[in-house]
Amino acid sequence: MAVNLSGNWRFVESENFDAFLEALGVDPAIRQVAKSASPRETIQQDGDTFNIKTIAAKTTEIKFKVGEEFEGEIQQGEVKIRPTWDGSKLRFEFDSPKGKQVQEREVRADGRLYLVLTAPDGTKSTRIFAKE
């Protein structure tokens, strides 16, 4: 295990989120709602076991162990998520109807949590959270 991601995290800024959502084929009206949301994440970590609760327009909660595939939900429906460590990054890979997507979470030197989202066409967005 690389780092401890535990904490209460509040959204502070986003980079390229609209382009990422557009690459996924998200309707413009839904993109507007998603862009205006200020999500919060609560991450509980015990070694490689996680509970991540995201509070936004919709509240979701996932429980998993790194290295063990689990079922998760994205806008397009249920997917099988493969969590792994990539150095200090918690990496999710899953196959969506549009193709393979990747999500990576890591705490960088500035103490903030960075969620980097990669669409199947390679479009990236970075969502940045500060610890509360």
Write structural notes for this entry.
The longest helix has 9 residues, at 28-36. The chain has helices at residues 17-23, 28-36; strands spanning 7-15, 40-46, 49-55, 59-65, 70-74, 77-86, 89-96, 99-107, 113-118, 124-131. The mean pLDDT is 93. The chain is mainly beta and 132 residues long. α1 packs antiparallel against α2 (28-36). The radius of gyration is 14 Å and the shape is globular. β2 (40-46) and β3 form a beta hairpin. A 10-stranded antiparallel β-sheet has the order 4-3-2-1-10-9-8-7-6-5. Helices cover 12% and strands 58% of the residues.
Rg for CA atoms: 14 Å
Estimate what percentage of residues fall within beta strands: over 45%
Number of helices: 2
Q: What is the structural class?
A: mainly beta
Mean pLDDT: 93
Termini distance?
23 Å
Question: What are the SSEs and their pairings?
Answer:
Blueprint: E1 7-15, H1 17-23, H2 28-36, E2 40-46, E3 49-55, E4 59-65, E5 70-74, E6 77-86, E7 89-96, E8 99-107, E9 113-118, E10 124-131
Antiparallel strand pairs: 1-2, 1-10, 2-3, 3-4, 5-6, 6-7, 7-8, 8-9, 9-10
Helix pairs in contact: 1-2
Give the tags.
12% helix, single chain, mainly beta, 10 strands, 132 residues, 2 helices
Quick recap:
It is built from two helices and ten strands.
